[in-house]
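stage 2 :: seqdesign
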């Protein structure tokens, strides 16, 4: 069933993914979902650009 949701997929050609995500956050274009390797996710969480949602239902 269609939900009306839009999925945008971005790739990062060079540089650190955490730098790209931080730049998008600063520009007001923060992604709702990030798929990356664990070190990039940890970097984003430590810098305040992401948070652990395991306590959400």
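stage 2 :: out
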């Amino acid at each position: 069933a269609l939900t009306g949701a839009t999925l945008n997929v971005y790739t990062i050609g060079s540089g650190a993914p955490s730098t790209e995500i931080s730049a998008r956050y600063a520009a007001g274009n923060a992604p709702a979902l990030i798929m990356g390797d664990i070190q990039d996710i940890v970097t984003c969480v430590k810098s305040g650009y992401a948070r652990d949602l395991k306590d959400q239902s």
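stage 3 :: structure notes
- The mean pLDDT is 80.
- The first helix runs from residue 17 to 26.
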